[in-house]
Structures are given as C-alpha cells and as structure tokens.
Write a structure and sequence with these properties.
about 400 residues, alpha/beta, Molybdenum Cofactor Biosythetic Enzyme, Chain A, Alpha-Beta Plaits, Maf protein, 3 domains, 6-stranded mixed β-sheet, 17 strands, about 40% helix, about 25% strand
C-alpha cells in the first residue's frame, strides 16, 4: 500500500516548529512496509489543503495521514476543509463532547465547541494528553487519518490507535522489537551489524538516532517468527552494555524503574548541565520514590559551599576534572544520604575550551554506596546538545555500574 503525509500549520511551514511528525510517521509506516509516496507541509491555507486532498483522491495512493489544525482557534480548520473536500458533513459526536467535559472539568471556553464536530462516519481516536481527538474515515477505497499536531499527543495516538487500524487494512501480520541503545555512534553500530544484515535478509532492521540514544527497530512478518527470535538473540549479544531495554520507554524511565526495583535512591550535583539531569528524572511519573535531592553547583564557590570540594582541588585540577567530580559525588553522598550520587562537570561551549580541555569535554563522578566510579567523554554538538547528551550518558553509565555492582 502507498501513503501520503500532510503536515499542516504555519508554524511548521515557516520553521517555528521542527517537523518531527513527518519522520516519526514515516518510520511507523515503514514497519508495516507501507510505501511513502509523498510528504508535504502546508500552512493554514484552505485552498492548498483542499488541493492536496483532491490530488490524493485522484492518485493511486491508499492512505492519507494529516497532522495539525485540530485545535480550537480560528486557524485550526483541517478537518473542516477535508470534510468539505470529501462532500461530507460535520456532525456532533457525543464521545468528543464527553472527552472535552472530562478534559476541562471546570468548564471549557466557547471556542472549544468546534472540537465536538467531526466528519460523519468517522471513528474517533482517543487523546488523553490534549483537547482534540483524532479521527479515521474511509472514502471510496481510500483511508484518511486526521491527527493532532503536538508530538507528545500524536505519538501515543498513532501507536495505540492508528497502527492497529493500519495493520488490519494492510493485512500484514508484523512482529516488531524496538531496542533503546546508548553509548554507541550510528556509524559504529552499522559496522558491527553489517554481518547480521547479510545473514538475515528477511528481517528488516533500522536505526533511528536521537540525542545520545538510538532507537533500533527490528521487524518481519509472522511467518519468519523463528528466524526473528534467532536474529534478536544475536542482536542482544552484539549490543551488550549499549542496550538499555525496550525503546517504548525513555532512558530516564528505564533508570527510574531500575532504581525502584533495587529500592535505591539517587541525587544529582550538576555544573554544566544546570539541573537538566534532575529535570529528566522528575519528568518520569513515580520518580519521587527514588529521587531525593539536586544541587546546581555551577560556580567553584558553590562546589565548595554545598559539596565540600576542596579549593586546592579546584585550583590544581580545575572544575572539569576527575578529581573535582569525585569530590562532588562524595560531598553529595554525604549531604543527602542517598544510595547513588551523580556529579557532572564539563564545558558545554561554545566558549571556554582549551587544548587540554576542549569544548564538549564532560567529567562524571558516580558514587554507588561506598564505591566511586569516574568517567569522561567529549560530546559533539552545540551547547544544548552537549548538555543533553551528557545527561543521557550519566544515566547510561549509572545503569551499567549498577549491573555490575
């Protein structure tokens, strides 16, 4: 089957929002061997949306997936334009009304009323994270999915509701495994897996690189189940410590779950990451069971004041050093009484680097009970990328140390 993707919104067209939806949807369709015929971005333009829908109806494509334009404002009109282009009518859905009443328990604004109406004959797609529901409808022999724009709402909607419908209409019984990998570059991974690709041509394998992580998706048809299991067993051996677990969860979710299982607590002391690691951890529901405290000791004075880092250590070795993060971790452990103390200090850039300590260099001190581990790594990218990658790396190394602790 063939599909077209239409991402709607001025914010996407003019680069105010990065269009991650297109790549995400394409990767999901690839799992089902659905061919991507066309990907387009249009602004909030009724004429252009109408033309795209009409062109789709006259094409040999089977599936149209749109994102964006389902909100309550005057420029959110994707479903209205598509409904008109199909010659259908908008009707009130009790399901949508109940959803809005639940989403706005204290009452909703009058502009939200438009989110009650969908094309007649639609199957509504739940959205627990936003006010707008998605919808699916068929028109002659075509399949149309009108979906929300924000990725945090789109991803669960797509995986929980769109994918099962697509599996049914494609009639392909797929088996899929998604791995979350950390601490390995995509090029190095490709080199390690080259023999596996050749050995299992009937198994589809695809890496999707993120900031410090790689989602590695393995898929095949149900009739290859035995070979699929064999390939995954070999992949697990090759991945080794770089394998965190199922890619359905983020590394911070895996980290929190591991600490819950081990009944351990963690605290963080951050310099260059400025609280980003703590923020990642507390973004996970239930993290209060394992996360104790965090201190941002950006200056040398703060490192001494809160973590008892020796001024002599800072003067001799510098803030970005094995010696300093060691004392930071020890001081944090003493301060908080946690089981695990993670300390980070580095040079995020773009300035501040030197020949001996280049931009991107980050040191880590991780104390687990009475055992202290240290590490360092030079990350690539801009300031924010270095900080994010450092946080991911810290979580990964802690997970690795816990496995051998």
């Amino acid at each position: 089957m063939k599909a077209q993707i239409l991402n709607v919104g001025d914010e996407v067209l003019y680069g105010l929002t990065v269009n991650t939806n297109a790549s995400y949807i394409a990767s999901q369709l690839d799992i089902l061997d659905i061919q991507i015929d066309e990907v387009n971005v249009v602004g909030d333009d009724e004429v252009k949306i109408t033309k795209f829908v009409q062109d789709f109806l006259n094409s040999d494509c089977d599936i149209l997936i749109t994102t964006g334009g389902l909100g309550p404002t005057h420029d959110d009109f994707t479903k209205e334009v598509i409904t008109k282009a199909l010659g259908l009518e908008l009707v009130e859905y009790k399901e949508a009304k109940k959803h809005l009443q639940k989403y706005f328990p204290n009452g909703m604004a009058s502009v939200n009323n438009k989110q009650i109406y969908y094309p007649k004959g639609s199957t509504l797609l739940a959205n627990p994270f936003g006010s707008a529901l998605g919808c699916y409808l068929t028109y002659t022999n075509k399949h149309l999915f009108i979906l929300v724009g924000p990725p945090v709402e789109l991803h669960p909607m797509f995986e929980n509701y769109v994918m099962p419908i697509l599996q049914k209409i494609t009639n392909i019984k797929k088996i899929t495994k998604k791995y979350l990998l950390v601490g390995i570059r995509e090029a190095d991974l490709e080199e390690k897996l080259s023999p596996i690709y050749q050995k299992y041509p009937q198994i589809k394998m695809a890496p999707y690189a993120g900031l410090g992580t790689i989602r590695f998706v393995v898929s095949s048809t149900k009739d290859n189940e035995k070979i699929f299991r064999q390939a995954n067993q070999e992949l697990n051996e090759i991945f080794g410590d770089n394998l965190i677990g199922d890619a359905e969860l983020s590394i911070e979710e895996h980290f929190v779950n591991l600490l819950k299982k081990k009944k351990m607590t963690v605290s963080t002391a951050e310099s260059c990451t400025g609280g980003m690691l703590a923020s990642m951890i507390v973004n996970v529901s239930g993290s209060s069971e394992v996360f104790g405290e965090s201190v941002v000791t950006y200056s040398n004075e703060a490192k001494t004041k809160y973590l008892q880092v020796n001024p002599y250590t800072l003067k001799k070795y510098g803030a970005v050093s094995k010696e300093t993060v060691s004392e930071m971790a020890k001081g944090l452990k003493f301060l908080t009484g946690c089981d695990i103390a993670i300390a980070i200090s580095g040079i995020a850039g773009p300035t501040g680097g030197s020949k001996d300590k280049p931009v991107g260099l980050v040191h880590f001190g991780i104390q687990i009970n009475e055992t202290l581990y240290t590490d360092c790594y030079q990350f690539k990218g801009n300031r924010n990328m270095v900080r994010q990658r450092a946080c991911v790396y810290a979580l990964w190394k802690t997970i690795c140390y816990l496995a051998n602790h």
